[in-house]
Every structure is written in structure tokens, then in C-alpha cells.
């Protein structure tokens, strides 16, 4: 079995075997077709602070481990894979230590990019490019959309909940105070009436 095909593998292959002291042979012609770089038709969405994978692969699968793979955004180098390793020389400082290729998958044609800790500034159109690929389609486009609204909404809801809690606590305090005053009045008022009646009777008796 021949794995990780390359365009240079195209050609005529000979299989020979010997039986009864006679050599026999058969021939197989192999043609390796071109692979296209495939991005994503649908935008990739992420929230601020998350890690995200920008999908890109070759179809049919093709080993590009010995080729150069470039990721760009607005003509800025996001990640460069060259000489079978990451090449940081051209990488924009905004993306340093934040981008990774899946090295074990490159031989299978998977050239997706992992982008860590995304920010709103990362939003935009990304291009995955294999410049030396023998194909009519050497670029794939991926659009990244970064949503910061969810985080803000949580903070907003938190503020509302805090205010609601404070209002509820205030209402409970008012209810308690009202109940105490009512109880005091209920207990004291009859005692005052009884004391007044007793004083009035005593006053009349003195006269």
C-alpha cells in the first residue's frame, strides 16, 4: 500500500515475482490527481476569550508536510509553516504564541489553524494558502466573527439582578418595621385605656 501520495508518485509501477524459476511481471499505472484547498463557506463564530479552530483542508487528502502553508488576514501573516515546522519570522506580533497547526494532521491534508484567546480585533477574513501546490485552487477562505455581546449581557443581567435584590431586601425591611409597629400599638393601646379608666374611677372615689 502506498500512503501519503504526492504528485511525484505518478508513473508506471512494476510488480515482479518468480514461480517455477520463471519471473513474471505485471505493471500498474498510477496517476495522482490534483488536490484543492478547501476553506469554509459558513462563517466561524466565537466569543471573546475562547479558542477557535479555523477549518481548512485539501480535497482529496494530500500530504503537504514538505510544502509551505501560509495563513493571512488582511495581508498580515497569521501563521507560516515552512521546512516542516512553524516559521515565526514573518508572523505578526498580534498572533505570536496564539496560533497552532495540527502537525500530526498535515500529512493527511488537514491544515486547519487553532487560534487561542480570540479578541474582537481577530475578526475578519482569513486566507489559507499553499503557494507551491500543483493545483488550480491553492487558497481557502474562512471568515471569523467574534461576539462580545454575550459577556456584556451577563454583566448587564448581573447588575439588574443586584438591583432587584436590593429592592426586594428594602421591601422586606419595610414590611418587618410595619409589623413591629402594629404589634406594639396593638399591645400598648389597650393598656393605656385600662390605665385611664382606673385613674378616672380612683379620681371619682377621692371626690
TrEMBL record:
Q: Which domain of life is it from?
A: Eukaryota
- Main localization is membrane
Ig-like domain boundaries: 49-143
Q: Which UniProt keywords apply?
A: Disulfide bond, Glycoprotein, Immunoglobulin domain, Membrane, Signal, Transmembrane, Transmembrane helix
Q: Where can this protein be found?
A: Membrane
Q: For this UniProt entry, which residues form the secretion signal? A: none
InterPro entries the UniProt entry points to: Ig-like_dom, Ig-like_dom_sf, Ig-like_fold, Ig_sub, Ig_V-set, IgSF_BTN/MOG
Q: Which GO terms describe its cellular component?
A: external side of plasma membrane
One matching Pfam family: V-set
Write out the GO biological process terms: regulation of cytokine production; regulation of leukocyte cell-cell adhesion; regulation of T cell activation; T cell receptor signaling pathway
One example GO MF annotation: signaling receptor binding
Provide the transmembrane region boundaries: 176-202
PROSITE patterns xrefs: IG_LIKE
Q: Which protein are we looking at?
A: Myelin-oligodendrocyte glycoprotein-like
Organism expressing this protein natively: Pundamilia nyererei
